Amino acid sequence: MTERACVVLKADHVIGTGHLMRIKGLLQPLLKAGLEPCLLTDSLEPSLLPLCSEYREIVHFSMDSVEGFVKSARRLAPSLVLFDHYFLGDKFESPLRDFAKVAVVDDLERRHDCDLLTDSGFFKSGAEYRGKVPEECSLLCGEQYSLIRPEFKGAALRRQPHARLRLLVNYGGADPAHACLKALTSIIEGRLFERYDVTVLSGISNPDHERLVELSKDIPGVEVIRSTSQVAGLFSRCDMALGAYGGMFKERMCAGLPALNTVIADNQRGGGALVARLRCGYDISLEDLARPQVLEDRLSLLESHLEDCREAGMREIGGEGIDLVSRALLKLAGI
Q1: Which residue ranges make up each domain of the chain?
Q2: What is the pTM (predicted TM-score) of this model?
Q3: Which pLDDT score, from 0 to 100, does residue 16 have?
Q4: 3-state secondary structure the chain
Q5: Domain 151-316: top CATH class
């Protein structure tokens, strides 16, 4: 009988696509080992369905009913349930432990009732979860457990020199802060396209995509892409980036793509201090992103330290996290 794993997450224009994408990479070794994944979600943007091809079944539930959620999970008969959901905690996890092993991907240091928890936050240790998880819970904490898809490792080695530096602009799948639009407007107003070749990667749920296309249509050296399954390949084409402190922050580090990084969500607060400590790039606020002269000055600063930032990022995020976490999950599931 095939063993089933249930993944519990949300992915929409509010929360973005980060949870969906980091679990997507983790599913590959689980599939190879024979686990059949299903998805339990309270919110899934229809446009994201093409990114859910690994799931045998997609079941929707309401956060208003723990009982309804447990009933849906039990019907799927999983041996493992994997949560990556900022709005669910021990209240939803506890009932599942009667019939499945429960694992959690977290970075908010909340209370959980689970058998395994991984938090890949920088400089994290199990001490942050003491008293918040059962004593027998296995804790995999620290940046070495970052769920970076294998294709990002070694992307820097595939990078080829160009006549001009290539700048990637991307702020995740949803970009609720409209950062792509702010950045591209500054690039055009400051005529930075005369200095850099620019690629704007507009996420699949980006509300400003049509506006981005309209702004760039007559600008030489600027291209706008509406999502891609070849993000690592795109990273290897570019030399520097503008981006957020979400999941792609670590992917850029692993791929050796230094960036000016911007806080675009509440859970990214403290990003400026983090990037200064890591020395893998620089911080720029949303307000300064909209100021062409400030953006040009910060890009010049990044350009002058590209190699040091590239090496610092790759040194910090080596790309082994998926192997470490998947082995622990398979062991938990008895496979």
Answers
A1: 4-148+319-332, 151-316
A2: 0.91
A3: 83
A4: CCCEEEEEECEECCCECHHHHHHHHHHHHHHHCCCEEEEEECCECHHHHHHHCCCCCEEECCCCCHHHHHHHHHHCCCCEEEEECCCCCHHHHHHHHHCCEEEEECCCCCCCCCCEEEECCCCCCHHHHCCCCCCCCEEEECHHHCCCCHHHCCHHHHCCCCCCCEEEECCCCCCCCCHHHHHHHHHHHCCHHHCCEEEEEECCCCCCHHHHHHHHCCCCCEEEEECCCCHHHHHHHCCEEEEECCHHHHHHHHHCCCEEEECCCHHHCCHHHHHHHHCCEEECCHHHHCCHHHHHHHHHHHHHCHHHHHHHHHHHCCCCHHHHHHHHHHHHCCC
A5: alpha beta
